[in-house]
Hints:
The structure is a single chain. The chain has helices at residues 8-23, 27-34, 82-98, 119-133, 152-166, 186-204, 221-232, 255-265, 279-282, 322-330, 338-341, 344-358, 364-389, 393-412, and strands at 38-47, 53-64, 70-77, 105-111, 142-146, 213-217, 236-242, 245-248, 275-277, 286-292, 308-313, 335-336. It is an alpha/beta fold. The strands form 2 sheets. It has a 7-stranded mixed sheet. The chain folds into 2 domains: 36-171, Rossmann fold (3-Layer(aba) Sandwich); 187-341, Rossmann fold (3-Layer(aba) Sandwich). The mean pLDDT is 96. Bound molecules: nicotinamide-adenine-dinucleotide.
Amino acid sequence: MSHVKVNNFKACCDQFERAAEKLGLEKNLATSLMMPDRELAVEVPLNRDDGSLAVFKGYRIQHNNARGPFKGGIRYHQEVDLDEVRALAALMTYKTAVVDIPYGGGKGGITVDPRELSERELEQLSRRFFRRISPIIGVNKDIPAPDVNTNAQIMAWFMDEYSQNQGYSPGIVTGKPIDLGGSLGREAATGRGVFLTIREAASEFDVDLSKATAVIQGFGNVGSFAALFLQELGCKVVAVSDVTGGLHDPSGLDIPALIDHVREHRVIEGCGQGKNVSNEELLTLECDFMVPAALGGVIHKMNADSLNCRFVIEAANGPTTPPGDEILFDKSIPVIPDILTNAGGVTVSYFEWVQNLQQFRWEEEEVNTKLEAKMVKAYSEVSALRREKKVSFRTAAFMVAIDRVARSVELRGF
Ligand code: NAD
């Protein structure tokens, strides 16, 4: 079984409740903090290239905006449903709070397999969807971004839709092309944040990164940049995988060559490196850092016990199910949670939005330095609380975040 479809929102509520209880949060406030502020479901019609009509379901869920405008990506995937979007929206509220950027949380998506659409169909679907959700979107209200299967081009179409009525408004979305106000450093930001998280954990737990090994599941945007930065610091990336399967070489894969291969062929298959392994076997390989950077629900009660790593670094959103998490806790394998590990992406999205509002572009070095400061501070705050309260990284990260959101809600009043 490669991944399990979990009740995402229930899993997220369980994580939240564990932390809220430790914080002694008043029960009604806790209920209010977990419930989404607003849920919008829309019908998205599309004229197919063959003249037929297709209809898709789309969502935008605004979870909480106590600390700033709703913020979160738009996902195009055949498995998108209300439950998944609701959970991802809640995670965004707590992710933006962990790294202390002035945003709330939101998420959106369309239940569609975009591989089945032509470029024209993809554009029409994206524009239709944006128009349907536009009554609740705004530069200071709700700022979408890319997520799985959406990209800078789709953000450019969203920005164009909005700007046609409101005037040139690059701040309406982040993750845009650089030519339309995208930020330097945004493309690599999530992978860089994952790398910085590993670097901080290695330093805290006395792991020499130049002698360490990592396994990375998923070699897309997040996984490939994380692999590259790790290798630059001497860490051996001994296995990677994507949808076509995995590659394993105990002496370390050549990551720049692999990235070149994927740029040309889209997948790692056929690159001529390492020995083939399945995605399921890959999770059991011996390493210091196991980095799931593809799908949710890949570490679960059926396979958690066979993991052979010192740390799990959650680069993907929700890669560990709650039963999987408990097994890893019992095995004393620290799991550094998604809301901390992959927060580099939304942090640089925030920097992009600030640059758009200032109408001023920062140099890439400035973006990377500011990202590093945010990630290092967030890691240190979470880990200090973890040690003080003797809880898991995940519970500590939620505690830091919930405390910040709760204070803002109370200050603003109901
Ligand atoms: P991507 O589409 O660029 O890459 C996904 C990778 O996963 C690809 O290599 C793909 O082949 C692989 N994959 C797909 N199905 C797989 C399977 N069944 N088994 C193994 N590998 C499989 O996506 P991404 O932007 O790198 O996002 C990866 C994860 O990180 C997602 O969970 C996403 O929500 C999360 N995330 C991304 C960002 C970001 O800025 N891109 C930010 C925060 C979180």
